[in-house]
Amino acid sequence: MIEIQNIGRQFNTRDGTFEALKDVNFAVEDKEFFSIIGPSGCGKTTLLKMVAGLIKPSSGSITVDGQPVVGPGNDRAMVFQHFVLLPWADVLTNVGFGLEMRGLSRKESREAAKPFLDRVGLTRFSEHYPHELSGGMQQRVGLARALAVGPDILLMDEPFGALDAQTRQLMQEDLMRLWDGEQKTVIFVTHSMDEAAYLSDRVLVMDTHPGTVREILDVPLPRPRDESVRRTPVFNELTAHMWHELRGMMGDPTAAAPE
């Protein structure tokens, strides 16, 4: 279990202290798919980086299975919006890079990476280079690299945000299938209400200035899921509720829901 308790984070700026997060409290259960959604600037990515151990909170604590997070750990892996692949290395070397950093030889890491490349459907591209792949394929490589190091927890920061709409939906379906098989604990940051509802067990809606927990929504959709859930009344009601909350935070209560 991941427990976030009374988390606050301030940054020093030329105009003084900026309070990014204040009194953030929630818990994520083992093997839960937990999404975080909120307006730009509400601290979603900052919060995710604190769970990853990349940023320290100004106040409060974060624990994983009762152990305090004091830095990055082998139990957590992060997937970023931008693919952060090594341009000079082929796909298989990129997938095995995290294993190589943990002490395996290049040959051993490449061999250990092969099953994870197969899971994301890119085995035949193992000797290609990142510039030879589409955006969706590059993101699959990033996901395979995260899975290859064997984390219990995947931290995903808008991983599909840079993709076109069609590729993004395909990647959502791929991630759903992988999660069904792997059953990792996932914290997933997104701006997309549709994406959050489709993927998640629960969705945290964040308020802003400073970032706080506005509410946590259960997603009462059956698993395994397919595209048909997007056409159900429950799905539509959930996304409509999220939009109602978010548009109020953005100061336009009369705005029409997005298409």
Describe the structure.
- It is a single chain.
- The chain is α/β, with parallel strands linked by helices.
- The chain has a domain at 1-75 and 194-259: P-loop containing nucleotide triphosphate hydrolases (Rossmann fold, 3-Layer(aba) Sandwich), CATH 3.40.50.300.
- 34% of the residues lie in helices and 25% in strands.
- It is built from 8 helices and 10 strands.
- The chain has helices at residues 44-52, 91-95, 97-101, 106-119, 135-148, 165-182, 193-199, 233-249; strands at 2-13, 16-28, 33-37, 59-64, 67-68, 76-79, 153-157, 185-189, 202-207, 212-218.
- The protein has a 6-stranded mixed β-sheet, with helices on both faces. Strands 2-1-4-5 form a 4-stranded antiparallel β-sheet, with helices on one face.
- A hairpin with a 4-residue loop joins strand 9 (202-207) and strand 10 (212-218).
- Helix 4 packs across helix 5 (135-148) and helix 7 (193-199) packs across helix 8 (233-249).
- It is globular, with a radius of gyration of 19 Å.
Give the arrangement of secondary structure elements.
Blueprint: E1 2-13, E2 16-28, E3 33-37, H1 44-52, E4 59-64, E5 67-68, E6 76-79, H2 91-95, H3 97-101, H4 106-119, H5 135-148, E7 153-157, H6 165-182, E8 185-189, H7 193-199, E9 202-207, E10 212-218, H8 233-249
Parallel strand pairs: 3-8, 3-9, 6-7, 7-8
Antiparallel strand pairs: 1-2, 1-4, 4-5, 9-10
Helix pairs in contact: 4-5, 7-8
Report the portion of residues in β strands.
25-35%
First and last CA, distance: 36 Å
CATH superfamily of the domain at 1-75 and 194-259: P-loop containing nucleotide triphosphate hydrolases
Specify the helix fraction band: 25-40%
Mean pLDDT: 89
Low-confidence stretches: 255-259
Main-sheet strand order equals 6-7-8-3-9-10
Q: Classify the oligomer.
A: single chain
Order of helices and strands: EEEHEEEHHHHEHEHEEH
Radius of gyration: 19 Å
The overall strand count is: 10
**What overall form do the CA principal axes indicate?**
globular
